[in-house]
Design a protein that fits this description.
The protein is built from nine helices and two strands. It is an all-alpha fold. Strand 1 and strand 2 form a beta hairpin.
């Protein structure tokens, strides 16, 4: 396909595609003349991945480049790529109290999770617990464990549903799910909260 069709299929402007090509984020197409190139499905998938990371995931192009480098590194296994994607999606300036960090470590041990010791999500979770404490809400151990159990169930299902066979597609799906799956879970949680509230607390409004 020509670049115009690639633009239509991915909804990425031609000028932006050319910029990604110049920056090395997108591999060159097959040259068929001095000024024309053909592109294929791999370019479609890569553009959708870049767009998801940059627009929906909110990553800078530098971070996008870092994630793509992991995606393209054939020597890295999928577990390592997932960890790199997680790290790229998290800010560098995270802070958390020692108390909350220890609490997170205990939770991970209690759940029997195999997690990198340097995983930034450890600090992210601890910082979230600190934020709740600052506004006077203590997330008790029982509710935190419930969250962790639900997260285990979701994560197991997500990993089990990843496509298999083509490594590149599997890696890309892993990164996309990591970057864009959060809003899906958040919306489902809020819908479930509304339903639980209606049943437990009563509601003046009947569901439509």
């Amino acid at each position: 396909m020509w670049i115009a069709e690639l633009s239509r299929r991915t909804e990425v402007p031609v000028a932006t595609i050319k910029y990604y090509l110049r920056e090395g984020l997108l591999a060159p197409g097959e040259a068929v003349g001095a000024t024309r190139s053909r592109y294929d499905e791999s370019h479609v998938r890569r553009l959708r991945l870049i767009r998801a990371l940059a627009e929906s995931g909110g990553l800078s192009l530098a971070r996008v480049r870092s994630v793509l480098a992991e995606v393209d590194e054939e020597s890295r296994d999928l577990h390592e790529v997932l960890g790199s994607a997680h790290g790229a999606l998290i800010p560098d300036d995270l802070t958390a109290s020692v108390e909350s960090r220890l609490r997170v470590d205990e939770l991970i041990a209690d759940q029997g999770w195999s997690v990198y010791f340097e995983a930034a999500d450890r600090v992210l979770l601890a910082g979230a617990l600190d934020a709740l404490e600052k506004v006077g809400y203590h997330l008790d151990d029982e509710l935190l464990a419930t969250y962790a159990s639900a997260a285990t169930q979701v994560a197991d299902a997500e990993i089990a549903h990843l496509p298999t066979g083509d490594r590149q597609q599997t890696v890309e799906a892993t990164v996309l799910l990591t970057a864009l799956g959060g809003p899906v879970l958040l919306a489902l949680r809020r819908l479930a909260q509304q339903s639980a509230s209606a049943h437990r607390l009563g509601s003046a409004h009947q569901p439509s």
